[in-house]
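Hey L., structure's done. Input below.
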Amino acid sequence: MKIKRLLVANRGEIAIRIFRAATELNIETIGIYSYEDRYSLHRYKCDESYLVGEGKSPVDAYLSIEEIIDLAKSKHIDAIHPGYGFLSENPLFAKKCEEAGIIFIGPHSSAIEIFGDKLRAKKIAQDLSIPTIPGSKECITSINELKEFANQFGYPILIKATKGGGGRGIRVVENASDLESEYLMAKSESLKAFGSDEIIAEKLVKNPKHIEVQILGDKFGNYIHLFERDCSIQRRHQKVVEIAPSLNIPQDILESIYADSIKFAKATKLYNAATFEYLVDEDKQHYYFLEVNPRLQVEHTVTEMITGIDIVQSQIKIASGQLLLDFIGTQDNIAKKGYAFQCRITTEDPQNNFFPDTGKIEAYRSPAG
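Output:
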């Protein structure tokens, strides 16, 4: 199906990024904005824009599933791109789009549901003989269960939210004296951020390399990878620097990670764009599956830089029913050239333990060689 009118259910720079990709494909673009965003740049970078979530908080406005779907139907929208964050990994939103006859630019709702649960995804990886980090087979429901796990595997251990992402709901426990406080903190963070306090425990992999593989798959079961990104430089389990391709990972390890990512995608019928994440151990001899992000990621741009492939346009073409063969070709057609870096800048207060903060930017100078 040819997409003529595309709505972006997001805001800010990712909305603008998608508008640009769609405009280059001669697709009309429709934006949404909260009342607080009425002067935001993304509102003026699309062909049409509409207020959503009147009377709601700025965040809740972009989470108004029924209102966004109703707006899309009333404005004769063919497709919705969720960007990242907000509704991008919400299986209900994808399902509502499918039920309304609107193309959801991303994986099928059933795939999003699978990967929204880290424990479920890990079990599938194990069934496919993909290496995983030793960890709890079910959710940890009490401090006693967590103590048993720590006694079995030894410290340090990692506690993390089953529904988590973005580094939230993750706590490292170095010794028994911190176990209970970190357990309660992880559950609290998880409930606040993801609406669920379900957690799992894993053995901590020390000084790992964090590697992620970008996958594209069409609706006909064809898959390619766009090599890997290295996001090992992190703070509070959140990515700070992204490098593509990775540094100092043996080629045979990389080839195995590529193959496992495509095997996993095929087994779960995961189409469109997704990222498979792994940890490579300190000795760079073993790797472990971590999670799948069934959506576009912030760091997609570094992969685009080294491959020359527009991932957002690829998403739109796949969603409209095109074959990968028709616009990219086979794996042999893809080569990596040079290196690309992405540095994430965050606003933090250095006098308050670098706690996230807001304020006015008084000076800005972009790199100019």
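The longest strand covers residues 223-235. The radius of gyration is 21 Å.

-- N.
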